[in-house]
Amino acid sequence: MSKTSVNLLKSLCEAHSVPGYEDEVRQIFASELQDRGELYTDGSGSVFCENGEGPRVMVAGHMDEVGFRVQNITRDGFLQFVTLGGWWSHTLLSQRVVVKNRAGQKVLGVISSKPPHFLSAEARNRVMDTSEMFIDIGACSQQEAVERYGISLGDPICPQSEFTQLANPDLFMAKAFDNRVGMACAIEVAAQLDEHPNCLVACGTVQEELGLRGAKTAAAKAKPDVVIVLEGPPADDTPGFNPADSQGRLGGGVQIRMHDPSAMMNPKLVDFAVSTAVAEGIPYQVTVRTSGGTDAGSFHLAEQGIPCIVLGVPSRYIHSHNGIININDYQDMLRLAKAMVRGLNQGAVDQLTTYL
User: Fold this and answer.
1) Does residue 346 share a domain with residue 198?
2) Which domain holds residue 291?
3) Is the C or the N end of the chain the one with fewer CB within 10 Å?
4) Is 192 among the domain residues?
5) What is the active site of this protein (predicted)?
6) 175 neighbors 21 (Cβ within 8 angstroms)
7) What are the backbone angles phi and psi of residue 115, rounded to the nearest 5°?
């Protein structure tokens, strides 16, 4: 286990960076890579670190995590909210959150609702809509929420969850593994690779959770020839899944995604990823998904079409306050991403789009 990787994951996972407010993760990216190449951003806030010459090979993770924004402040000082990204409301009640006000101050609160004592039998047995929930920050009035705590409409709200090592030392629990594992890997690839036969572009995109938005402008800005998307996809190795059909098992190695509703990955690039993993002795698991999507959905349609592959670290319970990963899967993704970058010379990149 790499102490560097764990420390980086901790700082990234505990950062407050919901869609449109990715500043804290962007600052970590810039701090870690300030001496590794040219740093720049696009008009949406996606960030890049570029070095080397040759075909433009991008390793990209998205900086945002699912979160919320303040939609209303009631007369009694409670906060109503809208969701940013996909939440299942069953996971929300009694969970701690942090509101970040305009001054950058962080205000702790808890997602609440009516106690069961005041609910009808019908209400107790249905999934509660987030419109019925509210956040309690301890304010006694709207005026106190605004003047004492600095809360404004639109303020970003992030889950509160400490990065924690479990009793099994290979397992870690935190919020935002989707997609801070991808961001950590993009940073470490750029920080560790000194020699590569290409122009390596490490990238952190914005607003992936709101429809793969940042990847559109990132592709226009950086104009990559090939993109390795680094992700934190959902694991499928818990009760309710057939273990024999699992394609995202903790400890099973880096996940190589071939297909999901947002993108069909370049078949030659998939083969290259698999053959590289085999040659390097890197554990991997191949997946074809019937739901979900990644930034590959935007990257592969940009410009004249960009070959994409998605590498992932399976995480249990993503889009909740507490996901779980196996750190060995992360190390496998890092090893494969670096090996692929080293192998993507001009000839290999040209071959990906040779159809005649």
Assistant:
1) yes
2) 3-65+175-352
3) C
4) yes
5) 208 (proton acceptor)
6) no
7) -65, 155
Q: Is the confidence at residue 215, as pLDDT, over 80?
A: yes
pTM: 0.96
The count of structural domains within the chain is 2
The reply to whether 209 sits in an annotated binding site is yes
Q: Is 53 annotated as a binding residue?
A: no
Indicate whether 16 belongs to any domain.
yes
Using CA of residue 187, residue 189, residue 190, residue 194, what is the dihedral sign?
positive
319 annotated binding-site participant = yes
Known catalytic membership, residue 22: no
Q: How far apart are the first and last CA of the chain?
A: 45
Residue 230: is its pLDDT beyond 90? Answer: yes
Catalytic residue, chosen from 32, 50, 208, 303, is: 208
Regarding whether 181 and 153 lie in a shared domain, the answer is no
Q: Residues 266-285: what's their mean pLDDT? A: 98
In the chain, alpha helices (H): 3-13, 23-33, 121-124, 142-147, 177-192, 213-222, 267-280, 296-299, 327-343, 346-352
Give the Cα separation of 258 and 269 in Å (integer). 9
Examine residue 164 and state whether it is found in any structural domain, yes or no.
no
Does residue 274 share a domain with residue 215?
A: yes
